[in-house]
Design a protein that fits this description.
Layout lengths: L10 E3 L6 E3 L8 H30 L17 H14 L7 H17 L2 H6 L1 H17 L7 H25 L2 H8 L2 H4 L1 H10 L3 H16 L3 H6 L1 H10 L5 E4 L9 H5 L11 E2 L9 H5 L6 E4 L6 E2 L1 H21 L9 H9 L37
Antiparallel strand pairs: 1-2, 3-4, 3-5, 5-6
Helix pairs in contact: 2-3, 2-6, 2-7, 3-12, 3-15, 5-10, 6-12
The protein binds iron/sulfur cluster (2 copies).
Length: about 375
């Protein structure tokens, strides 16, 4: 019996010599653009962090800040955003304590639904750090280390367990009154300042935990993203329903495996006709590596609705810009906590009412904090 030989369909005759050759990929690599986008987001995040640091510093000195508080800082409050999102779904009220956190969460969820885990591959600063630690790993060890499947699979489920823990706590354990109490609590009002202190006044335990994670990500590339990040788990789960996927055309594929070698998520791209994996972060490294024209690409179906990597980049960045602009225009970007109130909070950050226990907050003075009735919107403060 003869052995079936796979002959790629894109073999063309060379002009003049008549020799047969493979049609080469003619797209320019997207990786430089991806780096520009990643560093662009990093710059914005660092700028926001710096402005916020100065703003808090001026408040702590008892001064009225000369800068405006940057609402983008609320992107670092995913749990508060999840609580506010559920409250919004249940009551139709998007609160004005941290509205930007919900806006950013919704934008990120939208990227997951439409653009796979593009947030991880193109936007997240921890994804960028992870990429560079992986590069350093390859330089140091001259290969990409991968845990055996026996360890890799159970460890990958850890991030889903963490995600389950948060979703269960917010969507099952907290009732409407708990959500309301949390959103308007002193703790939530200063959650952004507490997050800043987490980094600027880091305890030695936190420092060593972070160093351990960096070390593990150096030894096992993308350790944090692959095994622990609950955000990555959420986007990975959403990416299953994303219509866009990496497709491979088996008729033109020459089985060179360059795509698989390039994939940082250890996906066997050369064996898949469609990459369904929740680990695919739409980085397009496989597409850049593929040497054959029209063989590896992102599209909705194998033959229809192909999306060029550059168009993907524009749509992803456009979603963030458009979402932020829309929130600004509709008044859901800046929060409604007056500066005078912040001045009071920063002096009391260590009081017992500025803490919570798994979402349960201590009782606080609702009248003083202008807390609206459950399901009603907050009143705009007079001085803003
Ligand atoms: S399959 Fe391609 S796009 Fe997805 S993670 Fe791997 S290299 Fe990146
Ligand atoms: S890079 Fe992957 S998809 Fe492209 S020809 Fe080689 S094996 Fe096939």
């Amino acid at each position: 019996m003869g052995v079936a030989v796979h002959i790629p369909k894109n073999i063309v005759q060379e002009e003049g010599s008549g020799k047969q050759k493979i049609e080469k990929a003619d797209h320019s690599p997207i990786q430089p653009v991806r780096r520009i986008v990643q560093f662009g987001f990093l710059f914005v995040i660092l700028w926001i962090g710096f402005e916020f640091f100065l703003w808090v510093h001026q408040l702590e000195q008892g001064r009225t800040p000369t800068l405006t508080r940057p609402p983008g800082v609320e992107g670092f409050l995913p749990i508060s955003a999840l609580i506010s999102l559920r409250y919004w779904i249940l009551t139709g009220v998007l609160n004005h304590i941290h509205p930007a956190s919900v806006v950013l969460l919704v934008i990120i969820l939208a990227t997951g639904v439409f653009l796979k885990k593009g947030f991880c591959g193109w936007v997240c600063p921890f994804g960028l750090l992870s990429d560079y630690l992986a590069k350093l790993h390859i330089r140091l060890f001259d290969r990409r280390f991968k845990l055996p499947k026996l360890l890799d699979y159970p460890l990958r489920s850890l991030k889903y367990l963490l995600l389950f823990f948060f979703v269960y706590a917010v969507f099952v354990q907290m009732n409407l009154f708990d959500l309301h109490a949390f959103i308007y609590s002193p703790y939530n009002r200063v959650a952004d300042i507490k997050m800043l202190k987490f980094f600027t006044e880091m305890s030695s335990t936190t420092f060593w935990v972070l160093m351990t994670l960096v070390g593990l990500s150096l030894l096992i590339p993308h350790f944090w993203c692959r095994y622990l990040c609950p955000y990555g788990a959420l986007l990975g789960a959403l990416s299953w329903i994303s219509p866009l996927k990496i497709h491979r055309n088996p008729e033109t594929c020459i089985d060179c495996k360059l795509c698989t070698k390039a994939c940082p998520a250890h996906i066997q791209v050369h064996k898949e006709n469609v990459v369904f994996s929740d680990e695919c972060n739409a980085c397009f490294q496989c597409v850049d590596a593929c040497p054959v024209k029209d063989t590896l690409y992102m599209s909705v179906t194998r033959k229809r609705f192909r999306l060029k990597p550059m168009a993907y980049a524009w749509i992803l960045v456009g979603l963030f810009v458009a979402g932020t602009l829309l929130a600004k225009l509709s008044g859901y970007w800046h929060n409604w906590i007056p500066v005078e109130e912040y001045k009071y909070h920063v002096q009391h950050l260590h009081d017992p009412e500025y803490y919570h226990n798994r979402g349960a907050v201590p009782r606080y003075d609702e009248q003083k904090l202008r807390v609206p009735p459950v399901g009603k919107p907050m009143e705009h403060p007079p001085q803003q």
